[in-house]
Specification:
By secondary structure, this protein is an alpha/beta fold. It is built from 14 helices and 13 strands. Strand 6, helix 6 and strand 7 form a beta-alpha-beta unit. The longest helix is centred in the middle third of the chain and has 17 residues.
Length: 352
């Protein structure tokens, strides 16, 4: 069976990691054809060596993808048995069964993150993906419930396939890691990430005498397009207390995770929320907001919840957790093999 996979979102944050982690399992189960941008060819994972690679410069969610997708590409796609997108973009003219993943609908649930036009455009693409898909995947029951509340699912299967720790974090870890006094945050500065509450809590902790440093890890472009008020606060912060790394490699991120005393994820909204799981896996304690999706995902993990949007409670939880022993005996709830198995079984069951 031939599986055509849209890989143009490789190396693009969480969706790229999700896809890269699933590729080895798809390649074991199917004859895979991969659609990429020309500049992605050199960074394809080793597992793709046996795959047919198709290059294009057509951007995801572009008018050309939507209305003028080349006949030559459509012919290749339609010669396959399945089209899979790790997100909700579907090129025009696809006649074979389509499957997509909607990770979250944050822009529909928090409309102040975008303009009215931006919200309508996103809703159009979400609904279009649902309408064209045989089944839709998502990464938490919370996201599934929100998709059902905001979009028209009709009788389409909406299937939860949880995220997991990427394979590059499963490499051999040093026997002993010397922790520094850092608290790390991984993400962008858009308002739903709750970084303003972490900055306030950090100031409280410093005023209370906690010897700590805040390290903010994220793509610089995401920071420039995020919350301008927070951007100003970060630009004026003392680098001895708060530093911003910008975009870093997976190896550098792993090093930050391992050396930190704490990871804090103060999100007001997530579809899943990967950084807490990655930090726990690498031996670092976690403080996260008590939003519904985190209560779902991390219910059985040794973490500390704080009251969402409450800087004082967050400061208290940081101080309580800062010198705790490293987390141990983590539940083995999530794996990309489990996720891939669910997706592959769905493909096979629907196409039988």
């Amino acid at each position: 069976m031939k599986l055509f996979i849209d890989c143009r979102m490789l190396n693009s944050g969480g969706i790229g990691t999700y896809l890269e982690s699933l590729l080895p399992y798809f390649i074991k189960s199917f004859e895979c054809l991969l659609l990429i941008y020309p500049d992605q060819k050199e960074c394809l994972p080793d597992c793709t060596a046996s795959c047919q690679i198709i290059e294009t410069d057509i951007k995801t969610f572009s008018l050309k993808e939507l209305f003028l997708f080349p006949a030559s590409l459509k012919k290749i796609i339609n010669s396959c048995d399945i089209f899979y997108s790790p997100y909700c973009n579907v090129p025009c003219g696809i006649k074979i069964p389509v499957f997509t993943t909607i990770h979250d609908i944050v822009f529909l649930d928090i409309p102040e993150l975008s303009s009215r036009a931006g919200i309508l455009i996103r809703k159009f693409f979400y609904q279009r993906a649902i309408n064209k898909s045989k089944a839709i995947f998502t990464v938490s029951q919370f996201s599934a419930d929100r998709i059902k509340a905001k979009l028209k699912i009709k009788n389409k299967p909406l299937i939860v396939t949880y995220n997991s720790v990427p394979e590059h974090f499963s490499l051999e870890k040093p026997a002993k890691i010397v922790k520094d006094n850092s608290i790390i945050y991984v993400g962008n500065i858009k308002k739903h990430k709750g970084l303003s509450f972490l900055l306030e809590a950090f100031e409280i902790c410093k005023a209370n005498g906690l010897d700590c440093k805040l390290v903010i890890i994220g793509n610089a472009e995401n920071f420039r397009s995020g919350d301008t008020e927070i951007a100003k606060r970060l630009s004026s912060a003392d680098e001895k207390d708060i530093c911003f790394t910008g975009r870093i490699s997976d190896a550098e991120l792993q090093n930050y995770y391992q050396k930190a005393k704490l990871l804090v994820q103060p999100s007001l909204y997530e579809g899943f929320g990967m950084p807490p799981l990655e930090a726990l896996y690498l031996g670092t304690n976690v403080v996260i907001s008590d939003i519904p999706v985190f209560k779902e995902i991390y219910a059985d993990f040794p973490i500390s919840f704080f009251k969402s949007a409450d800087s004082n409670d967050l400061a208290e939880k940081i101080q309580q957790s800062f010198n705790k022993a490293a987390p141990e005996n983590l539940p083995q709830k999530y794996s990309f093999q489990k996720t891939a198995n669910i997706i592959v079984e769905t493909f096979n069951s629907i196409l039988q």
